[in-house]
Amino acid sequence: MTITQAIERLIELRTKHGDIDVVTDCDHCGKAMTLFDAHGRAIPQPDIHDPQDVSPEDAQLLTVMVAEIRDLDQFGEPLVIGLHPLAAIQIAGLLQLALRHDGTAGDIRRAAEGFLSGVREYFAECPAVLEVLRRGDDPGEDQPR
Questions:
Q1: 94 with 125: CB under 8 angstroms?
Q2: Strands 22-24 and 13-15
């Protein structure tokens, strides 16, 4: 497992309800989150509190990374991401697809739902955009390729 893969598995993002600002959330770092490979097989998750199957150097790097994120979460400003409206809709569509996956649960699901809520609020005065977002929530609206 590479460091990049470990980091991708460990950092969970959440979205503030009503905003589209993405912030790191370390209250739940180290909790299990099921990820799947391209063949639908579960990918084992390292436990940052008891890192196994990683080298001692990687385990130390993960420990320091978690401490850095916790410090930023407690004492730093949130990570604010400004999006153009089209990018917000594109990301919303990707998240709607991700929410259909059975493995998307817990904090990751809440983060996606919070982001989508913020996008809906941003487009509150745009009925056509809201209709497209509504359809994106309905798998029955999917078009086969």
A1: no
A2: antiparallel
Say which amino acid occupies 82.
G
Interatomic CA distance for residues 75 and 130, integer angstroms: 36
Query: Could you tell me the residue ranges of all domains in the chain?
Result: 3-75, 85-141
Which pairs count as long-range contacts for 33-40, CB under 8 Å and 24+ apart, including other chains?
A: 33/9, 33/105, 33/106, 33/107, 33/108, 34/103, 34/105, 35/9, 35/103, 36/101, 36/103
Note the pLDDT tens digit of each residue in 103-125: 888 888 998 999 999 999 999 99
CB atoms within 10 A of CB 105: 13
In tens, the pLDDT along 58-70 reads 888 888 888 888 8
* Structure confidence at residue 102 as a pLDDT band (50, 70, 90): confident
* 69, 63 Cβ separation under 8 angstroms: no
